[in-house]
Design brief:
alpha/beta, Peroxisomal Thiolase, Chain A, domain 1, eleven-stranded mixed sheet, two-stranded antiparallel ribbon, 13 helices
Length: 402
């Protein structure tokens, strides 16, 4: 099986702009959750979210793109620009480069603004450029167009596992010869419809989400993007690229159980992890850290704990398991990519990110969740879990390099 080199990294979320800001926030256990300012949360059970504050187009972005880009597309472009530069890619590399992005909301926030202007403000004249940014596929289109990527292009929308599946598909493209390199990741912005939907499900915590805590009462929504550049290992070496890590394998499964609830026995989650381990030829003894899906909802945290115990047996108690959603919220379609990046940063900087808001562990959640503060620890091989509505389960395995 061809090895997949990770040569580019890009990030933007509530902890800041850029990979270094993300790494600093993770290590410090900074919680980026605050009051919603993008729209009114009046009437909702919560008014908290993990927003990207003062989002602005970067100077390098072409003005026509910057003017029309939706919030989700802008997040993706900022992260992709950093990843492209980190990888040292140029125009000569673009012809064989693909793009695959995970997203669930696309340009929905832009659609809400345009609809509000039309209905509430009676502005009947609408510009096509604005409406053209609303489909879920547009962030991937914008990334491919700005960086002139002529390889395959795809948008993945499997709920909260979208970003994780995008990374897995990118690796498949390279191994099958469909692309020489792939710009891959996930992006989603906050919008009122998503916020209202989770409120209707009574899934929002009034306080910052508390994964694995006895008092947890739901999730906290967030926004952001993470983009990585994948390449065939030998190609990266030939062009003298700096290899930052290795994408080892991924496993996917379906719960076939319920639209919003996980299987109580964790069977689907177990299958995804087992398939990732099997595909990568990775033993359970090799996993040094698990970045959990860890939403802070009553069912997810218990079920995920059961699944980890089922796969790893007694060793589960010796593996740190944390939820970085306690710091950046649940970024929906971007979550899997953001958490994969967090896992790789943990390896590169030798620390375990904390479950920053955990104070009173649930007796049913009895693993090592690293509460409050990060832990210095040498890591090599890590597992990242993402579970989406509809029972879309994905587990990724990433290994460090250098």
């Amino acid at each position: 099986m061809y090895r997949i080199a990770i040569t580019g990294l890009g990030s933007i979320n509530a902890l800041g702009v850029g990979v270094e800001a993300f790494a600093r926030g993770l290590r410090a256990g900074t919680c980026g959750i605050g009051e919603v300012s993008l729209f009114s949360a009046a009437g909702c059970r919560s008014s908290r979210a993990a927003e990207v504050r003062a989002l602005a187009p970067p100077a390098w972005l072409p003005h026509p793109v910057a003017r029309r880009a939706s919030r989700s597309a802008l997040l993706a472009l900022i992260a992709a620009g950093e990843a492209w530069r980190t990888a040292g890619l140029g125009r000569e590399d673009a012809a064989g480069t693909g793009v695959v992005m995970g997203s669930t909301t696309g340009g929905m926030a832009t659609g809400e603004e345009l609809y509000r202007a039309m209905v509430q403000l009676r502005k009947r004249r609408q510009f096509l450029a604005g409406w053209s940014e609303t489909p879920v596929s547009v962030p991937a289109d914008d990334v491919a167009n700005v960086f002139a990527c002529y390889g395959p292009r795809l948008t993945v929308s499997t709920a909260c596992s979208s970003g994780a599946n995008a990374l897995g598909i990118a690796a498949d493209w390279i191994r099958s010869g469909r692309a020489e390199a792939v710009v891959c990741g996930g992006t989603d912005s906050l919008c009122q419809m998503t916020y209202s939907g989770f409120n209707a499900l009574q899934a929002l915590d009034r306080e910052p989400c508390r994964p694995f805590d006895k008092r947890r009462a739901g999730l906290t929504l967030g926004e952001g993007a993470a983009v990585l550049v994948f390449e065939h290992w030998e190609r990266a070496q030939r062009r003298g690229a700096r290899i930052l890590g290795e994408f080892v394998s991924y496993g996917v499964s379906a719960d076939a159980h319920h639209l919003t609830q996980p299987r109580p026995d964790g069977g689907g989650a177990v299958l995804a992890t087992q398939r990732a381990l099997q595909q990568g030829g990775v033993a359970i003894e090799d996993i040094d850290y698990i970045n959990a899906h860890g939403t802070g909802t009553a069912l997810n945290d218990v079920v995920e704990t059961r699944a980890i115990k089922s796969v790893f047996g007694p060793r589960a108690y010796r593996i740190p398991v944390t939820s970085t959603k306690s710091m950046v919220g649940h970024c929906l379609g971007a979550a899997g990519a953001i958490e994969a990046l967090a896992s790789l940063l943990a390896v590169r900087y030798s620390f375990v990110p904390p479950t920053a808001t955990l104070e009173e562990p649930d007796p049913e959640c009895d693993l090592d969740y690293v509460p409050r503060t990060s832990r210095p620890q040498t890591l090599r091989t890590v597992l990242s879990n993402s579970y989406g509505f509809g029972g879309n389960n994905t587990s990724l395995i990433i290994r460090g390099h250098e």
